């Protein structure tokens, strides 16, 4: 058989319980679970079910996790791909991938299609660096728009796309009947961070001095991905010194390590600062 062009997960186990904080976003996205589970409730009244929603927010804040949880809650397959691997060097490949994706999704409907980094393919047309290099990306974007317009609202396919650059997106993507819903996902506040710590502390063997509230207070600016990283680093550090459980000192060291990594990354991005 042909190599998969994208990941398809037909048995998603992630649910809203795995997504901490993000209460407003969860509330909004619950509507989509309902569309997938009870389409006729909407269509029998003549309503058109939305085809797509954009999840907007900084890296690591749980956009992919939330999209997966929608599939998990609705019990439908999850097709995912990244805008950056959509953009192929070879003429026609990107557009062919899009068509193939929708063909498979139609066969598996109801389902979720998740496009990470939609901005890589959905940058406004006629914008960007080298002329010529962009033509292929634009072909891919055009075929995405054609596919989105081509399926009926009751086909059971909902497309979720994530970006942290909504400003560069082609306005055509956000016309009615395309990604006409926007859900913003922000970095967590101290309450959100505590909730995220609690999710990621669950599988770890903790010493009694570990306090999620204190960890949350010490990690301003951290996204969920960094919090998950801190929890795992702390467990690795404790294991390396053959401890029976993970204590606050291990978390302290893990936070220092993750903060160090973030600082390095920021330096690489903005060397003049
Ligand atoms: P990117 O834009 O970089 O793709 P993203 O917003 O899609 O990032 P995810 O890939 O969903 O972020 O998050 C990475 C990991 O961080 C998740 O798999 C999870 O372990 C953790 N995480 C992020 N946000 C949350 C959250 N709200 N609750 C629990 N875990 C979270």
TrEMBL record:
UniProt: ATP binding residues: 57-64
The organism's place on the tree of life at top rank: Bacteria
Compartments, record wording: Cell membrane
Segments forming domain AAA+ ATPase: 49-189
Record's function text: Acts as a processive, ATP-dependent zinc metallopeptidase for both cytoplasmic and membrane proteins. Plays a role in the quality control of integral membrane proteins.
Protein family: In the central section; belongs to the AAA ATPase family. Belongs to the AAA ATPase family.
Oligomeric form and interacting partners: Homohexamer.
Name of the featured protein: ATP-dependent zinc metalloprotease FtsH
Gene behind the chain: ftsH
Region of the whole protein represented: 182 to 454 of 672
